[in-house]
Specification:
Layout: E1 3-8, H1 12-24, E2 30-35, H2 38-47, E3 50-55, E4 69-76, E5 83-84, E6 87-91, H3 96-110, H4 119-122, E7 125-129, H5 136-149, E8 155-159, H6 166-169, H7 178-186, H8 190-197, E9 198-201, E10 204-207, H9 221-233, E11 239-243, H10 248-257, E12 260-264, H11 269-284, E13 294-297, H12 311-315, H13 319-337
Parallel strand pairs: 1-2, 1-3, 3-4, 4-6, 7-11, 7-12, 8-10, 8-11, 12-13
Antiparallel strand pairs: 5-6, 9-10
Length: about 350
């Protein structure tokens, strides 16, 4: 789930215009809510954690520091001032686009060491699909999610499995794959090589999975984290959909980067026990808060389709595709409502 950013200003029209822009025109890693009455914000804070409060110092009161509020950023009418009373400050009377830029600078400055920077600047979201038991339905869901998102957004799809079947699925052998992306990334050359690295299918950009499973030995957590941050911040994508294999000692670092994690749920006993062990791991490793961004899905059955060159087209009109479209539409409606 997204964190909450609250805008408090007694000027209703200003607060509404800014909130609408932050929710609809920019792609912040927050759900943005507006308040013009102190009582309403207090009641909301009793039920929800407000990660960031954007408020004029005129309306800020000492009592509010005891509410369920993480960070306060001041909306100031003093141009050129970026800090007031030990709080970061943003100039109020400028374009909403520039407010977003200044919020980005505040967000990066306030982020704890080791967290992903540039979450506001890049405006790109990392959508992870993971399950501790794998399975073809997970990959089918991930592919359909990327394809359906690509109808509206700029999407890059990555698959981290050792045996993906993509050469036959897409009917092509690719000269470069994911291990090459990391290699060129380590040399700071991936942007120069991107035309050769990146494939296109109906508007969805994708990079071929590793050709040899042994190549995954090169996919260390540090290398994956570095290149994913660069992809998120490069400004070329709105969404990156990543199908995460259970190569776990670096998968855990990728899970930390994800804005949302989809876990297809299986009903057999062993799969349930594996998922329970994953939940235990989150608790032991101090990642209990990760649950907030996990969506556990009961996926529909995927019928056996003819192994033809238009296999993906068949998938796009099946029950799984209908399920994914409803999921995507629900997420979009939720963002607009907030």
């Amino acid at each position: 789930m997204k964190k909450i950013l609250a805008v408090f200003d007694e000027d209703y029209l200003y607060a509404k215009r800014l909130t609408d822009y932050l929710n609809q025109k920019s792609r912040l890693p927050f759900h943005v809510v507006q308040f013009t009455k102190e009582e309403a914000m207090k009641a909301y804070a009793n039920e929800h954690k407000i990660a960031v409060l954007l408020i004029s110092p005129v309306f800020m009161r000492e009592e509010m520091k005891q509410w369920n509020i993480g960070t306060v950023v001041y909306l100031t009418d003093m141009e050129g001032v970026n800090q007031l009373d030990s709080c970061r400050a943003v100039y109020k009377y400028q374009s909403a686009e520039h407010v977003v830029r200044e919020l980005s600078a505040c967000y990066d400055a306030l982020s704890p060491p080791g967290t992903m920077k540039g979450a506001l600047k890049g405006a790109c979201r990392l959508e992870g699909i993971y399950a501790p038991y794998g399975g073809s339905r997970k990959t089918t869901f991930a592919l359909l999610l990327a394809l359906i998102l690509a109808e509206r957004y700029r999407v890059l799809y990555l698959n981290m499995e050792g045996f993906s079947g993509f050469a036959r699925l897409f009917g092509r052998e690719c000269a470069y794959d994911l291990s090459d992306l990391l290699y060129f990334g380590s040399l700071n050359q991936w942007k120069e090589k991107k035309d050769a690295l990146i494939q296109d299918y109906k508007g969805m950009k994708w990079i071929a999975p590793v050709c040899y499973p042994e190549d995954r030995d090169y996919l260390t957590g540090e290398r994956m984290e570095k290149i994913l941050n660069e992809l998120l911040e490069c400004g070329e994508y709105d969404k990156i959909v990543i199908d995460i294999a259970d190569h776990f000692f670096f998968s855990s670092r990728i899970l930390d980067l994800c804005h949302e994690i989809y876990i297809p749920v299986k009903e057999d006993a062993i799969s349930k026990w594996k998922l329970m062990e994953f939940d235990d791991w989150m608790e032991r490793s101090g990642r209990a808060g990760m649950e907030e961004k996990i969506r556990r899905l009961h996926l529909p059955h995927v019928p056996v389709l003819k192994e033809t060159e238009n296999y993906l087209e068949q998938l796009m009109y099946g029950e799984m595709a209908d399920y994914v479209r409803r999921l995507v539409k629900g997420a979009q409606d939720e963002e607009l409502e907030r």
